[in-house]
Amino acid sequence: MEKLKKNEMVRVRIEDMGHDGAGIGRVDGYALFVKDALIGDLAEVKIMKAKKNYAYARLMRIVEPSPFRVEPRCPVSRQCGGCQLQAMDYEQQLLFKQRKVENNLKRIGGFENLCVQPVLGMEEPFRYRNKAQFPIGTDKEGHPVAGFYAGRTHSIISCMDCLLGHPVNEQILDAVLNYMERFQVPAYDEQTGKGLVRHVLVRVGFSTKELMVCLVLNGRKLPKQEILVEELTKIEGMTSITINVNTERSNVILGRELIPVWGQTYITDYIGDLAYQISPLSFYQVNPAQTRKLYETALSYAGLTGKETVWDLYCGIGTISLFLARKAKKVYGVEIIPQAIEDARKNAARNGITNAEFFVGKSEEILPEYYRKNGGYADVIVVDPPRKGCEEALLETIVKMQPARVVYVSCDSATLARDLKYLCGNGFRVEKVQPVDMFGQTVHVETVCLLSRNK
Ligand code: SAH
Known about the structure:
This protein is an alpha/beta fold and about 450 residues long. Helix content is about 25%, strand content about 30%. The protein is built from ten helices and 21 strands. The chain has helices at about 75-80, 90-105, 170-180, 225-230, 290-300, 320-325, 340-350, 365-375, 390-400, 415-425, and strands spanning about 10-15, 25, 30-35, 40-50, 55-65, 130-140, 145-150, 155-160, 195-205, 210-215, 240-245, 255-265, 265-270, 275-280, 310-315, 330-335, 355-360, 380-385, 405-410, 430-435, 445-455. The strands form four sheets. Strands 8-7-6-9-10-11-12 form a seven-stranded mixed beta sheet. It has a seven-stranded mixed beta sheet with strand order 17-16-15-18-19-21-20, with helices on both faces. A five-stranded mixed β-barrel has the order 1-2-3-5-4. Strand 9 and strand 10 (about 210-215) form a beta hairpin. Helix 2 (about 90-105) runs parallel beside helix 10, helix 3 (about 170-180) packs antiparallel against helix 4 and helix 8 (about 365-375) runs parallel beside helix 9. The longest helix has 18 residues, at about 90-105. The protein is globular. Bound molecules: S-adenosyl-L-homocysteine.
């Protein structure tokens, strides 16, 4: 076969899509990976990097568009890269995600004939995010900008109205940038570690309309802070303004210390009829409409009658714990972030829930320790880990505790598949797999899974 060369132009029909959303086609026995190309496109592409039997190519021109192609709503969708699927029809996005879960369960988990339910989609797959974190930088003319990092660089492309987020973000960023311009407040510079303003974090309580602004600083205070506060508090719904101190030279967004500036240090939101208090440092699901569907699925999978003891591991601010507590005898929640557990306890009290107890620490340490000391018992164990999934020490303890059911909520179907394989090799079987679309336009998919213990 002819070896493909860098900068060569070739024509290719896209026949598949990888898990990261890149189109895949074949030319002369080579697999070509083409970002921004969709299944069904006939495309002219330029070879960027050729390996032995595959190559990366750049989409130059679409000769024949895929029938699934739609006009992206966002003018910078390709540059930003956050919405890998925005050029794809929404129904097709949902099918892509279903296949992604099926493939991972098959390839990584070795599950051949699992029935993965169709993905629960959104009514409106834009403007669904209640949280946004905008990096702040300086443009070539020396003006402050907010937006997103241009692929693998430190320069920021201005974009103040992400179409996945709430329109109020733009109003808030306007106020911050105007203030910075007026008082010559420097943006943080990742390369030198100098400058002050790093990120602006905004959260909106979709059901309460409460607004939170958290300014992430390479320092503890802003000059003429009261003027910025005055501007921000003119925005309807403003409830909480805080400063987060992050003086580390890393790309981690938030530091540990939070300084109250104005109003409360939290906002409130509802999922169903439960009220949740949310601090800047706590995890809270970003898509409240779909979160409700996710939690309702988890609740129905838990199969509670009022007599059960339930563990909710990786519980965040206790959202799932409280959802389940009303139908269970007792719920124990475990979470690593202390502020989130403070929120969880307050949330329980606020909703009049007295049968939920919370522990700060790592799930893979707290549960095994509890089990060793108290022989802990559980009817149902819920896990909702971050992308890296559960540690084996935790899975081991779950197996020992022999709950009747495990409800696994996952934001990464690859680690889900790995962990299900472990559990199914140790006495459990998969009953149901329900993906939920929490992140429309992106390649990410959330999955709820029910496992039962073999008799
Ligand atoms: N169930 C919650 C939170 C899920 S996100 C909800 O639906 O809102 C995952 C949570 O796990 C985060 O709050 C994160 O802080 C926490 N976490 C990460 N690693 C952990 C660990 N090893 N042990 C316990 N919690 C952990």
